[in-house]
Design a protein that fits this description.
The structure is a homodimer. Chain A is an alpha/beta fold. The two termini of chain A are about 15 Å apart. Strand 14 of chain A pairs antiparallel with strand 13 of chain B.
């Protein structure tokens, strides 16, 4: 379990952690330091790159960063090419000779919508390649290493591996299983309830938490809700307009036990300007819903629903992660956030973070 | 909200907080520093001193601590007398001339089971008295200040007031209302349930949390449970033997809606070696239960019960504090920790602490 405080300064693990041995420690961990910068680059793409993964790269020579880049969108240049282009904006092509490139994911070695990055690296004259995670497709994993080494480059694999794998967890899951990464989001009171007694404000969580939900939506390719929530709350499930300048409205999917025509046709999801981004899964078929979303390029989806659909997803073992906002009260309201759940669900890697007056739990399931 | 990490080092607020201005800051806050030491002394008595409050004292001269002491048990010397005696163990009586005494609570000025501490302070030749909290009995508040000042001593009141008030919150509540401080303790899953599905282990929380429950029991003068828990779980509600070398077994009170003779007579609370420390409150009368305990000298009681009694205490506005242990799982078990609660209960001063794999919430109610 990890507990974070709000606004906790991000620690520079290399230079702050152990100040007496600063110099030696920094030299030992130069690869990790540069990879952390590449990870920071990659993070800029989270939520934007599907069906591609978020990837970041930095190019370094003699302890100096020459350039950096991240993959901004499917069809646009990969992070390696962005970083190479960034170097060339400020330096001559010669500067790149014998440089090292740090990239969060194994460079692609096949022609896709863009030419293979391994070729770009070779063309640039880079002499060392460090990457954090192997390609999750077993047919591609390690191909870049063999190819680059055969051309005389030094290749190091697995630096900051865990963080680099986290960046591509949705992409990996689709590769592996044909299903997207599924996060359940709930907001409950400290006694587990999703509602407050009649007559009280129906807001549970603070503005800061609602802001964070916007961020989670931004990082998702689709938002799933249930037929009951659709009928009763008539939710919009939209991103705010600022976010929509960077990203298409995520898919909105209603999973109903009945048929589409039984849902109220006048509700927002069917009538607002993003109505073409609304999907319906009939017969409560969770697996079909997720497959349908994966086929549309979704690698990361969020479920925002009531206790019954939440429980169904958990019991079907289709959930990878939970994000539960706890509001600082015991509500005594009539409905529980995980009503209907009748199985033990273990959580791993729990992280608690203070968000305004609320507490956010993020944990992996199973 | 405050979030604590497990094993977080206790910060020395004076010397660590603001290192650039260390010297100046330390001088400004010498009173706070010494009072913090007095508070540390007082803490040793928490759970042991009822019906008296926990009090600590240190005696200081020329920036050096000459002695310290805490009130160990009703009928034993007060903290001030313990500190004076401690000085005399290592120094001559002359050393105390013109010393300062820091004491967490206003010294008593009346003859009780022990002679008044104000007289002891005068006899010792102490010239300055600093105390953190006034006597919560309005008839006594400020009397020590006036008396000591009339004898030419310098008196400072209110240093580390909040922490000093916290030390005596049970004592104050009894003085003010005739009722003890009431803490509800619960252990629930992250979906708010108190049980796991049939067939799973019925332990929710980790050994570290169960250890912490022992500590909470140690700090309590009585443990309250409900008739249902008594019948179904047959709990012992005992302190471990190590703790019992320092403290009498807290009172154990069963609140039943029916009559005592309807409870199973063979259950532990009625038959174990502490059976004389078991009380029963009939007719589910919560107020009578608390009054009965206050009359027996209890200033701090803990409720360890099921959802119905928990809810009854909360709805009757008889709860001062909650301590809720969250186990890191969604259980889907049949019973909720706060079942029966049908009112919004706000929490203040929430503090979350990691305890093993669990999360402990402590918060004030209302």
């Amino acid at each position: 379990m990890v507990i974070h405080r709000e606004n906790e300064p991000i620690k520079n693990l290399v230079f702050d952690a152990d100040s007496h041995h600063g110099v030696e420690f920094a030299r030992m961990n130069a690869d990790e330091t540069w990879m952390q910068l590449a990870i920071e680059e990659a993070k800029k793409g989270i939520g934007l790159t599907s069906p591609n993964p978020a990837v970041g790269a930095v190019i370094v020579k003699n302890g100096q960063m020459l350039g950096k880049g991240w993959h901004t969108r499917a069809g646009m240049p990969h992070a390696e090419r962005e970083a190479i282009a960034n170097v060339l904006e400020n330096h001559s092509a010669k500067a790149m000779m014998d440089a090292t490139i740090y990239v969060t994911l194994e460079p692609c070695s096949t022609q896709g919508r863009t030419p293979p990055c391994t070729q770009g690296i070779l063309d640039a004259g880079i002499s060392r390649v460090v990457y954090g995670a192997e390609d999750p497709n077993p047919a591609h994993a390690g191909v870049a290493k063999r190819l680059l080494e055969s051309q005389g480059l030094e290749v190091t694999v697995g630096v900051e591996n865990e963080a680099c794998l986290k960046l591509i967890r949705g992409f990996s899951k689709v590769q592996r299983s044909g299903l997207p990464w599924v996060m359940l989001k709930s907001a409950i009171s400290l006694d587990g309830r999703i509602t407050r007694p009649p007559g009280e404000s129906q807001w549970l969580t603070s503005p800061a938490s609602r802001e964070m939900v916007q961020r989670l939506r931004f990082e998702s390719d689709a938002i799933i809700t249930g037929g009951n929530t659709f009928r009763i709350d008539n939710p919009a499930l939209t991103l705010r307009s600022e976010a929509l300048s960077a990203k298409t409205q995520p898919w909105r999917m209603v999973i109903t036990r009945g048929k589409r025509e039984e849902l109220p046709p006048e509700h927002q999801l069917f009538t607002d300007v993003y109505a073409d981004r609304t999907l319906v899964q009939e017969s409560g078929d969770l697996l079909a819903a997720l497959k349908q979303l994966a086929e549309r390029g979704c690698q990361s989806v969020m479920v925002e629903a009531g206790g019954t659909l939440m429980a169904a997803f958990l019991e079907a073992k289709l959930v990878d992660e939970v994000a539960i906002f706890y509001a600082p009260l015991l509500t005594g309201g009539p409905d529980y956030g995980f009503a209907g759940l009748a199985e033990d669900i273990s959580l791993r890697n729990s992280e608690f973070t203070q968000i305004g007056d609320d507490l956010l739990l993020r944990a992996l399931v199973g």
